[in-house]
Design a protein that fits this description.
single chain; 329 residues; alpha/beta; Rossmann fold; 42% helix; globular; Epimerase_deHydtase; NAD(P)-bd_dom_sf; NAD-dependent epimerase
Length: 329
């Protein structure tokens, strides 16, 4: 079995390639930028190149994309070219080559404005059935690419699974208020309660998707750490998150104090990964309980894989204010 991975010079693409190499599994790595894990340099919109590579593989894992950090630095047409046309180019090649399955890496950002409740409303319970309201060109193009996967499964019988990943990037937060009020690992640890996932668990989900794609045909799955919250917690989460967390983890305040950390005053959404756990057999290791255990033991809660991949950034240049320009949308 051979796999084409797009985006092997990026965080997730490299992480998947590292795991495959560690397990002595064959792959082709395609990216615009060269790297140790990229075997072919080029664009996913290059039809001839894509066709030549797809003809050599059984499965595709498509992680290459323009991300949210590019919204302030790239034109909308760039997003359409990469995220929509690039995905379509890969799907057409996959259909012609009659490959066994296509795994598309999408994002929880497609939910957009749905993720933000009004001040007097409870936190939002986010499942695969939640209707998204994308708020920028990134969300729009990722949603459109998901739909392309669905019609290729429906109309051409190409098995496709969409994995909607939550945050796993190691870069600092793009919100100035977060950077000013929380240590970087403080906010990342807290996000495991509701909106973060370790890249090692993301890799595991993608490899399980390869095993399940032919059986399932088409499906969308939220890939995020297992939240300890239940729907009964949603109202209080959006008013006093610490109180809810303390009910579930009575020692969290002591452990956070040990690090000089604080809890967010409120939490606005909860990503639910139940479908991925049930249908893919996914068992994510890294959650908030794991984080607390690591703090108690004096260990780093991040996986070795995430540390090995490291911080790549999303731009060749650096910026004076934050990790990248942020548009007020």
């Amino acid at each position: 079995m051979k796999i084409l991975i797009t985006g092997t010079s990026g965080h997730l693409g490299e992480a998947i390639a590292r795991q495959l190499k560690a397990n002595h599994r064959d792959y082709i790595g395609l990216d615009l930028n060269p790297s140790e894990f990229t075997t072919h340099t080029g664009s996913i919109t290059n039809t001839a190149l894509v066709n030549s590579l797809v003809n050599q593989v059984d499965f595709i894992i498509h992680t290459a994309t323009l991300h949210k950090p590019h919204v302030g630095t790239h034109a909308s047409q760039d997003f359409i070219d990469t995220n929509i046309t690039g995905t379509l180019t890969l799907l057409e090649a996959a259909r012609k080559a009659n490959i066994k399955g296509f795994i598309y890496t999408s994002t929880t950002s497609t939910f957009g404005d749905t993720l933000t409740p009004k001040p007097n409303e409870p936190a939002i319970w986010i499942t695969e059935k939640t209707i998204g309201l994308p708020k920028n060109i990134y969300g729009v193009t990722k949603s459109a690419a998901e739909d392309l996967c669905q019609i290729f499964c429906r109309n051409h019988k190409l098995p496709c699974l969409v994995l909607k990943t939550s945050r796993f990037f190691p870069e600092e937060d793009d919100k100035k208020s977060i950077r000013e009020n929380y240590q970087d690992l403080n906010i990342k640890a807290t996000e495991y309660l509701y909106r973060r996932v370790d890249v090692e668990d993301v890799v595991t989900a993608h490899l399980l998707a390869i095993d399940k794609v032919q059986e399932i045909g088409f499906g969308k799955y939220i890939i995020s750490s297992t939240s300890p919250f239940e729907q009964q917690h949603l109202t209080e989460l959006h008013t006093d998150a610490s109180a809810v967390v303390e009910k579930i983890f009575p020692d969290f305040r002591t452990l956070f104090a040990k690090k000089g950390w604080t809890m967010l005053p409120k939490i606005d959404r909860v990503y639910v990964n139940e479908k991925a756990r049930c249908e893919l057999g996914w068992k994510p290791k890294y959650d908030f309980g794991y984080v607390l255990d690591c703090i108690a033991a004096g260990k780093d809660f991040r996986s070795q894989l995430s540390l090995d991949v490291g911080i790549k950034g999303y731009h060749a240049e650096t910026f004076t204010e934050g990790p990248y320009p942020v548009l007020d949308i």
